Amino acid sequence: MTLSVGVLGYRFMGKAHANAMARLPMFFPDAPDVERSVLVGRDEEALSEAAGRLGFESTSTDWESVVDEVDVFYNLGPNHVHAEPSIAALEAGTPVFCEKPLAPTLEEAEQMTEAAREAGDDVPAGCAFNYRFVPAIRYAKGLLEAGELGEIHHVRGRYLQDWLVDPDAPWSWRNDEELAGSGALGDLGSHTVDLVRFLVGSDELAGEIERISGHLRTFVEERPVEGSESGVDDAETRTVTVDDAYSAQLAFENGAMGTLEASRFATGHKNDHTIEIHGSEGSLRFSLERLNELEVLRGDDRGYETILVTDEDDPYVDHWWPPGHVLGWEHTFVHENAEFLRAVAGDREDGEFRPNFEDGLAAQRVLSAIEESDDRGEWVSPSVI
Amino acid sequence: MTLSVGVLGYRFMGKAHANAMARLPMFFPDAPDVERSVLVGRDEEALSEAAGRLGFESTSTDWESVVDEVDVFYNLGPNHVHAEPSIAALEAGTPVFCEKPLAPTLEEAEQMTEAAREAGDDVPAGCAFNYRFVPAIRYAKGLLEAGELGEIHHVRGRYLQDWLVDPDAPWSWRNDEELAGSGALGDLGSHTVDLVRFLVGSDELAGEIERISGHLRTFVEERPVEGSESGVDDAETRTVTVDDAYSAQLAFENGAMGTLEASRFATGHKNDHTIEIHGSEGSLRFSLERLNELEVLRGDDRGYETILVTDEDDPYVDHWWPPGHVLGWEHTFVHENAEFLRAVAGDREDGEFRPNFEDGLAAQRVLSAIEESDDRGEWVSPSVI
Amino acid sequence: MTLSVGVLGYRFMGKAHANAMARLPMFFPDAPDVERSVLVGRDEEALSEAAGRLGFESTSTDWESVVDEVDVFYNLGPNHVHAEPSIAALEAGTPVFCEKPLAPTLEEAEQMTEAAREAGDDVPAGCAFNYRFVPAIRYAKGLLEAGELGEIHHVRGRYLQDWLVDPDAPWSWRNDEELAGSGALGDLGSHTVDLVRFLVGSDELAGEIERISGHLRTFVEERPVEGSESGVDDAETRTVTVDDAYSAQLAFENGAMGTLEASRFATGHKNDHTIEIHGSEGSLRFSLERLNELEVLRGDDRGYETILVTDEDDPYVDHWWPPGHVLGWEHTFVHENAEFLRAVAGDREDGEFRPNFEDGLAAQRVLSAIEESDDRGEWVSPSVI
Amino acid sequence: MTLSVGVLGYRFMGKAHANAMARLPMFFPDAPDVERSVLVGRDEEALSEAAGRLGFESTSTDWESVVDEVDVFYNLGPNHVHAEPSIAALEAGTPVFCEKPLAPTLEEAEQMTEAAREAGDDVPAGCAFNYRFVPAIRYAKGLLEAGELGEIHHVRGRYLQDWLVDPDAPWSWRNDEELAGSGALGDLGSHTVDLVRFLVGSDELAGEIERISGHLRTFVEERPVEGSESGVDDAETRTVTVDDAYSAQLAFENGAMGTLEASRFATGHKNDHTIEIHGSEGSLRFSLERLNELEVLRGDDRGYETILVTDEDDPYVDHWWPPGHVLGWEHTFVHENAEFLRAVAGDREDGEFRPNFEDGLAAQRVLSAIEESDDRGEWVSPSVI
To answer: ω into residue D355 within 30 of 0, thus cis?
Structure first.
C-alpha cells in the first residue's frame, strides 16, 4: 500500500517534511511507502516551483478538496491556518500531521483536539514536536523511565535565538498575535514545554505541571515592514504584538520545581535549546546545538559523562551510520515521519502516535497559563484556564 | 601603622579570611599591615586550637569587649549573630567586615545599615560578597561598563550545590530559619543577587530590580540530628524550616528580564555559580567552578570566546603569577581583604569600599521580596517591602 | 542531460553515496541530474537487496562491462579493488570517483594516477576525501587562505577510534595487508594527511611535507575469525598484518612542524578526528564529532571563539536549513557529490574537481613514507620514495 | 624542631616556594616548622627588597657559606647554576630541593645525582616537578595504579605556550644554550616527561621509555636584546641557540606508544599542559589550565566523566576548602614543600621524597635522547646515551 500525502505549506517546514518522506525508503524500509501527491498553497508560481523541487506530483490552492482526497494531510502552514484545514481533514477521516504549536489560541487547540477525539483512534492526529525524536532525547527518556535519576527535583529548559536582536530586523507574521498567537513563547516555548512533558511528565516522575508563574516581554515594539527603507524617518513600520522573550517558573505535581525561558534576543545563540534535569540519583543535560551528545551523571559518577549517542543500539541509530558518525537536525523529521506514517498504516503495535493533538493541547494549556499569569501577575494553574 | 583585627568566627570563613590576611604582605605590599589580634568564639578549646593554627595572638569569648579594642572587626559568625556585634562595633567607631548574607531578616539588615550610616564614611562597613573580587568578574564588569554588551536584555544567575540531596544528611543551623534566616535563598542566592547588582545594576545598564516573582521549596522536611543513628525508626530528627531551593523571575528598571535559581539538591554540582548576560551587542558567561575563565561574545564575534583571565593586565593578576598560572577560590578573599583594609586605612582614593552594608541590605531586600512573592503567589516590588 | 552512474560497492560507502545522490535534486538543484543505473558486486542476493533499497535500476557482477556503459563510475569497494576497475574506467574515458585511500600500495596509486593523467582533464578522477567538504573545514580554509593565521608553525592531526581495543573483536579485511594495504594508517591517516594538505599545503602556508618520522604498532597480533567461538582454546584465528595505530612527526617546506596520530585502540573515542593549527597570528581547532563547530583564535582574540558554522553565508549551508540547525556526517557526501558531478558535467568554471587522483597519490606517498620511516628507524622524505 | 632554609633565587620560583613555606603552618600543621633564613642572590639591592617581601631573615651573596649553615637548601636559580651549589650542599650533608630541569646538560645531571647517591638516604635531594602534586594528577595516578585503565596503549603529552611567537619578544637566558641547556624542551618538556614517568612509568603500566624519535625547531633565530630599540635597523640582537618547540615519538617497554610536544609558539595558549592516556579499559585527560578537573572514562562509561577533584577525600584537598572550592596553580608548591620537608625531618614513613634527583636525571636522559635523535635523524634509546 502506498499512502498519498497532501501537504499544506512549502517553506521551511514543507522542505523539512518533504525531505523526511524522501529519505524513508532507503533508511526506514519498514515505514509505509508514501507518494508526495499534492502540495497546497496560495501563490501558484511559488507553489509550482516548490512542488518541482520537493518532489510533489501536483499542486492545489484549494485545501478543502485536498483533505478529502489524500490518505494523509500534513498541515505545515503558519499557526493561524492550523485549525480549520486540520479539523476538516479529521472530519473527513483523514489522518493529520500538524506542525507546532498546535494553534495560536487555546480555543482553537481545543476545537482541533475535539475533532481528533471524534475522528477516533483509527485516524491519527499528530503534532510535530520533532525534538522528541532526537536519539539523545529518547535515550534520556529511557534513563528517566528506568528510574536512573531517582526522584525528580529540578527541571530547566530554555531555547535561545537572536534573530530579532537587531531592531531593524523586519516585521513578519511571527511578530503578529493574530497570525502567530504568541512570539518566542509559542514558537520556541511550545517545544520546551513538550520536551519537559515528554521527559518527566509521567506520574512516576514529576507528573503534570500544577502551577505556573509567567513573564513576557517585548523589547522592540515597532519593526520596519520588509522592503521599506529602514533607517529613514518615514520608514513604514508595524507593531509587534507578541513577546520577544518569556520566562516561567513551574511547580510540578510531585513537588519538583521548574524554570523555563526562551528568547529571540539572546545575542550569539542561534538555536540553543537546552534541557537540564536534576533527580535524587542523577542529573542530565542536553543542548540542541550538540544534539548527538547527552551529558549524564548517575550512580557513583562524580561528574557528567559526555555521551555521544551514536551507538548502534541507541534509538534510531541502527538505521543510519556506524558509531561516531553524527546526525543532524533534519534526522528528527525522518524519525517522526516514520513513526507517524506507521501509525497511519496501522503498523504500530501500540497503535498510537505520540505526540498527538492531546499533547499539542496540553502544551497549549501551559503556554496560555504563562500568558494568563503574566497578565494577572500571579501564579496560575493550567488545568483551570 | 598596623591594624589590629578582631575576628568573630573560626570555622570555614574564619580560615578563609585569616589566610587572606596572612598572604597580604607578600602579594599586596601596598595593603596596610595587619595583626591578627583576637579570635572570638564560645568554645574555648576549639577557639584556642584555631587561634594557634590561624595565627591569632589571643582569644576571647566576649565580643563586646573586643569590638571596642580592635582597629577592625570581622564578623564571620553564623547569620543570627551578624547584627548585634556588628552594630556594637560600628557604634564604637570600629570598621566592620561582615560575612554575607548581611542578616537573617530584613529588619536586622536595616538596623545594621542604619548603624553603618550613623557611623559615617570614616568607618567602613563592608559586606563580604567575595565573588565581586574574582578577576574574571571584574573583567566582565569592565566590559559591561564600557558598553561592550550594549543594552541589557537578559540576566541569568544560578548557584547549584548538592550537599542536601541525601535525605539522611544531618540537620544543621543552615536548615533553621531562626539561625540562618533562609536556606539556599540566603546562603547562595545572596551571592547571585549581589553579583547581578554589581554587574548590571547601574543606571546605564539594567538598573534596579523593580519586580520579582519568587518560588521556594523544601524537598526534605525532617532531617536526622547529627550523631543520631540514621535509618533506625526512632532516629532523632529536627524540622527543616528553610528552603532547599528557590527560583525567581526579575523585571529590571530598564526593561531587562532576569531569572535566578539556587539549590542544594542539584545532584553532581558542588559549587556551580553561573552568571549569563545577553545584551544587544554581546553576551557573557561565567562559572565559579572555572573561575579563571570568562566566555565573551561581542562585536563581530560569531561565538563565545573562552578567555583565560590570567594576563598581567587583568584585575589583580599582576599581584600573583605569570599568564596561565591559574588562581583559586581563596584568592577572592585576599583581594577583598586588601581592598577593605585599604579603605579602613584611608588609602583608597575613592575612600569607599564596596560591597558595603547598603549593598548587603539591597540584596536582603531582594531576598525578602522573593520570599514575600512566594508567600503571596504574586509579583512583588523589593522597594515596597 | 542525466548522468548514468555505475557504483561498485554497496555497503557503508555505497549507502553513503547513494543517499548523497538521492538528495541532490531537492538541495542542490544546480547539480546535474543523475540516474543510479547499475550497482556492481559479487554476491547477487545481497546486491539485489541493496539495489532495491538504495534505488538502483539494475545490478551487475561484471564491472568490466559497467565501466564502459555508464557516464560515471564510482569505485567504493575495498582498497584492493580500487586500482583495476578505476584504471579500466579511465581508459574507457569514464570519469571515476574512488573512495580513499586511493590504493593499498604506492605502486597502484601511481598507476591509477597515471591513468587519470592519460585520460585528460575532460575525464575527472576524484578521490573521495569527504572531510574537505565539512562546512567548518571549508570555512577554516578560507581563514587560512586569507592569511588570518599568519605564518604556520604547528599542525596537529589525529583520528581516534576504539573498535579494535577488544582483543576478541573479529578479524576482517581491514586487518589484512593484502586487502587493505595498511591499518589505522591508511584508513584513518589518509583522511588526516589529506586534510592537512588541503588546509596548509599551499606554498603561502606550510607547503609540502618535506621529511617524516613514522611509528607503527600492532597491539593485537592474532584475532578470531568471525563466527568462530571466541574464548575457546581452539578458536580459529588469523594474523593481523597491519598497524593498529600510527604516529608521525612532520617537517614542512616552510619550516612548520607537524604531528599526526591515529588509533583503533583509543578507548572511548568513536570517530574523533581533530585538526589543530597554530600560526603567528592565530590558531584553530576542529573535531569531527562536533563537525558543525570551529574554534578560532585570531587578531586581538584572547581565547578561542567557538563558532557554529551554520550561517547562511557559510560554505554549503545556504542549501540546507536556517542558522543553528546542525548538519550531520552524511552531508559531506552530498557536498562532494554535487561538486564532483558538476565537474563531470563540465559545469564548474574552474573545470577541475579536487581532491583528485593526484591528491590521492600525494597522500599515499606520505603514508608510504611513514611506513618506510618506521621500517628504517629514521626520517624519510616522501618525495624520494 | 624548626628547619632553617636557605634559598638561592628570588624571582618567579623564589616567590612560589616562599609562599608555599609561608602557608604550611595554617594548612599543613603536620609539616615541620620552617624558618626562611637566608635568601641568596647576586644583586644586593634586588635581593634585599625580595627578602623583605618574601619573609626571609637575612640575605647572602655567597651560596658557598649558606649551603653549610642551613638545614635545607633550595636551588631555584637558572639552570646553569643548578649543579655546583646543589652538589656542594649535598657534600655538606644538607638536603637539597632543586628546580627543574635538574641541569642544563646530561653530564651535570649525572654529577648531581651521583652527589645525591653519595649523600645517602638521610639527605633528601628533591627535584621540584610540582605537577606531580596537583590533586587531579594524584587522583589519576591512583586510578592507574588500581588498574582501572587496564593495559596502557597510548600516552600523549603536550605543553603549549605562546610568549615567543612575537619575533620582537626580547632575548633572555631562556634562549641561550649555555645558560638554559635547551628551550621548550627543557623548560616545558621536562615537566611532561616527568608526569609521563610518574603516571605510567611503573612496570605494571607502560614501563620505561625504550626508544625515542625527536624533532626540534627554532622558528626565530635572532632576537632583540632587552632595552634595545626593536624595529630599527641597527637594533642589537642576540642569537637564539635553543629550540622554540619540540616533538617526540616514544616506544615504551610494554609496547605502548607515546607522543610529546611543547612550544612557545602556540598562539593563544598560555600554560596549556595536557596529558592524555588510553588503556584497554579506559582513558583519561588532564589540562593544567583546568587543573581542578580530570576527565575519566572507564568501566561501562560511554563518555568521559568530567570530575571536579575537590572532594574531601581527594589527594591533599582535606587540607583546604569544602568541595567545589577550587585550588590554583600555586597550591602544587605547598603540597610538594610539605612532602619534601617532611622527608627532611624524617617524618615520612617511607622515608623517601619523590621526585628526587634520580627522577630528574631520568627525565634529563629522555630530553637528551630527544636532542640526540633530532641530531642524528633516527630513533635513539635513552638508556644508551
So the answer is: yes
Burial category of C210 from C-beta neighbours within 10 Å (exposed 0-12, middle 13-18, buried 19 and up): middle
Q: Which of residues 303-332 of C touch B (CB under 8 A)?
A: 303-308, 311
Would you say residue C230 has pLDDT above 60?
no
- Whether C137 and C273 map to the same domain: the answer is yes
Of A268, A275, A269, A215, the C-alpha closest to A243 is A215
Instruction: Kindly tell me if the per-residue pLDDT of D242 is higher than 70.
Output: yes
Q: Which of C114, C130, C146 is the last residue of a domain?
A: C130
- Assess D163–B contact: CB distance below 8 Å, yes or no: yes
D265 touches chain C (CB under 8 A): yes
Single-letter amino acid code for the residue at A313: D
Query: Does residue C116 share a domain with residue C37?
Result: yes
Instruction: Give the end of a domain, one of C91, C107, C130.
Output: C130
Residue A235 is part of a domain; what is its CATH number?
3.30.360.10
**Which range is least confidently modeled, A336-340, C6-10, C346-350, D368-372?**
C346-350
Task: Say yes or no: D292 and D165 in one domain.
Answer: yes
8-state DSSP, C351:
-
Question: Are C83 and C107 within one domain?
Answer: yes
Q: Please say if the pLDDT value at position C231 is more than 60.
A: no
What are the tens digits of pLDDT across the range D310-357? 999 999 999 999 999 999 999 999 999 999 999 999 876 666 899 999
Q: How many CB atoms lie within 10 A of CB D110?
A: 17
Interchain pair D215, C257: CB under 8 A: yes
Interface test with D, best of B28, B270, B311, B314 (most D CBs within 10 A): B270
CA distances (Å), origin D345, targets B321, C269, D27, D122? 30, 47, 18, 9
Residue with cell 518566542: A184
Q: Chain B partners of A301 at a C-beta cutoff of 8 Å?
A: 268
B-chain residue closest to D12, CA distance: B321
Q: Does D264 touch chain C (CB under 8 A)?
A: no
D-chain CB neighbours of B307 within 8 Å are none
**Pick among C292, C306, C317 to test the B interface (most B CBs inside 10 A):** C306
Residue B165 with chain A: CB contacts under 8 Å:
153, 280
* pLDDT tens for each residue of A8-31: 999 999 999 999 999 999 999 999
Number of H helices and E strands in chain A, helices first, is: 11, 16
Whether residues A107 and A249 share a domain: the answer is: no
- Is B321's CB within 8 Å of D330's CB? yes
Pair (B190, B287) in one structural domain: yes
Among A213, A217, A282, the residue with its CB nearest the CB of B213 is: A213
Separation CA D209–CA D255 (nearest Å): 10
ipTM of this model?
0.96
**Encoded amino acid at D261, one letter:** E
Chains touching chain B, criterion 3+ CB pairs below 8 Å:
A, C, D
Task: Determine, yes or no, domain membership for D80.
Answer: yes
* D231: confidence class by pLDDT, cuts 50, 70, 90: low
- Going by C-alpha positions, the residue among D317, D315, D284 that lies closest to residue D196 is D284
Which residues in chain B show pLDDT less than 50?
A: none
Looking at residue D351, its pLDDT comes to 67
Say if B337 falls within a structural domain. Answer: no
Q: Is the pLDDT of residue A32 over 70?
A: yes
Tally of structural domains, chain A: 2
> Domain limits at D117?
2-130
Question: Does residue D348 fall inside a structural domain?
Answer: no
- d(CA A153, nearest CA chain D) in Å: 21
By CA distance, what is D293's nearest residue in A? A303
Which of C293, C303, C311 minimises the CB distance to B306?
C303
Q: Is D302 on the interface with C (CB under 8 A)?
A: yes
Same domain, C111 and C143: no
Cell for B238?
529536627
Tell me the residue length of chain C. 385
